[in-house]
Amino acid sequence: MQNNYCELSPDLKISRIISGLWQVADLERDGKRTDHQKMAQAMEAYAKAGFTTFDMADHYGSAELIAGQFRKQHQGDPVQLLTKWVPKPGQTTENEVREAVEKALTRLQVSRIDLLQFHAWNYADPNYLDCLFWLQELKEEGLISNLGLTNFDTAHLRVVVKSGIEVVSNQVCYSLLDQRAAKSMQKYCLENDIKLLAFGTLAGGFLSKRWLHKPEPELNEKLSWSQMKYLRFIHAAGGWQKFQELLTVLEEVAESHQVSISNVASRYILDDPAVGGVIIGARPGLSDHIGDNSKMLDLRLNESAKSSIRTALDNLSPIPGDCGGEYRKPPFLTASGDLSHHVEEIPPPYPAHAVKGGKTKALSGTVWEDIAGFSRAVRKGNRILVSGTTATHGVRAIGGDDPAAQMHFIIDKIEGAIQSLGGRLDDVVRTRIYVRDPDQWEAISRAHGERFATIQPANTLISAELIGEGYLVEMEAEAQL
């Protein structure tokens, strides 16, 4: 890896400072319009400075269109356009996946997408895996060069990788305020040669001298969307006073290295060996920080500086959960504090049908439900019973030969069945786990522990000869609403 570039794959080398175009959506808030041509021309200054990589998404307003105009003007130049596809929750078809990719190709004015990053709203709905398998087929077809993920946690990154889906990166929130990625995510990415693309390293501009010794702003619509979002992170990390203490330490480090607080904040994250690049928001032609960003690449934090920063971080409250959790469960650390800016609803993963006897059944569609005459789950009154569940989805085996990956997908499938009948995973009061190989009990139990740590249902673990080749674990559950 060179200082300024990172190789995500043999055919994709990116600049370590990635210019993020999410602020285009903020500029276009409330129906405002941007000058596409002017912004496209302004992107040239970034590329000339060595910042040749731009990150965007299908929902970042006109970002893809602007980048497409820039790409058209710079055919043959070393420019990398990274985008994301964030489908609505619920069932997505194979045709819709292709249409989404073709739309991005048209907007970006390219024949192949350098890196397409995928976001899933609800792991309990296995349709997200269908989408990834279809995206991999489009990669093999030549429409996509590389696949990545965005806002995936460690457990589900593992499920994806062990199911044979080839991903080179995971884009997650990672900053001095938010150290979730420094835990199990970092370890797993290093072990599997997956790079983290870190956004939020400047916390919407709060990690800068501009906010040192300043009063806390009011959380309202006068702030940018990015500021609204990261002010919530500041609250979750311990509040404004703790944040000011961190800024004071960063100012001392910045002065000793003759750089800005922003340089220090991003460099600290970029020094993580699992991080391929940091994404710094850009408003091309409106507020460029190219010179200051260039200083960050030359910055080398000494051990004394890093030690001071680590001490300051120890005084913050950890952001709860794993990467991406802010988009899936409270506290929703988003601009609005909920998912209202993102989705209207999260549909149930499986169809539910009322039957005689006051029961409701949920069916996952597997052929075995018809052959053996059972339901994935049945609800009667406030009680939900979930059948023995293995790591299968349609004709596919999920999780490969990894017992932890299989276990996480099984729990997802059980959670999906419970959601479809009006419950939540928190409602589970009993689990029974059947293990083929007793030597794999610990990996399976640890996966169960990750997902049920705060729920702690009654549990039984049994060594058993499972039916079906490749099934390492089977689990059933009971929930009481």
Task: Give an overview in words.
The chain contains 15 helices and 19 strands. The protein is globular, with a radius of gyration of 23 Å. It has two domains: 5-327, NADP-dependent oxidoreductase domain (TIM Barrel, Alpha-Beta Barrel); 352-480, 60s Ribosomal Protein L30, Chain: A. It has helices spanning 23-27, 36-48, 63-73, 94-108, 127-141, 154-162, 184-191, 225-236, 240-257, 261-270, 290-298, 303-314, 367-372, 403-420, 441-452; strands spanning 5-9, 12-15, 17-20, 53-55, 80-85, 115-118, 147-150, 169-173, 195-199, 275-281, 352-355, 359-362, 377-380, 383-389, 392-393, 396-397, 428-435, 458-463, 473-480. A hairpin with a 2-residue loop joins strand 13 and strand 14 (383-389). Helix 6 (154-162) crosses helix 14 (403-420), helix 9 (240-257) packs antiparallel against helix 12 and helix 10 packs across helix 11. The strands form four sheets. It has an eight-stranded parallel barrel with strand order 3-4-5-6-7-8-9-10, surrounded by five helices. Strands 11-12-13-14-19-17-18 form a seven-stranded mixed β-sheet, covered by helices on one side. Strands 1-2 form a two-stranded antiparallel ribbon. It is an alpha/beta fold and 481 residues long.
Helix fraction bin: 25-40%
* Number of helical stretches of at least 4 residues: 15
> What's the Cα radius of gyration?
23 Å
Q: In percent, how much strand structure appears in the residues? A: 15-25%
How far is the first residue's CA from the last residue's CA? Answer: 52 Å
For the record, what CATH class of the largest domain applies? Alpha Beta
Shape from CA axes?
A: globular
Beta strands, count: 19
Poorly predicted tracts of residues: none
- What is the structural class? alpha/beta
Oligomer: single chain
CATH architecture of the largest domain: Alpha-Beta Barrel
Q: pLDDT average, as an integer?
A: 94
Number of domains: 2
For this structure, the CATH topology of the largest domain is TIM Barrel
Biggest sheet record: 8 strands, parallel, barrel
CATH superfamily descriptor of the largest domain: NADP-dependent oxidoreductase domain
Spatial order of the strands forming the largest sheet: 3-4-5-6-7-8-9-10
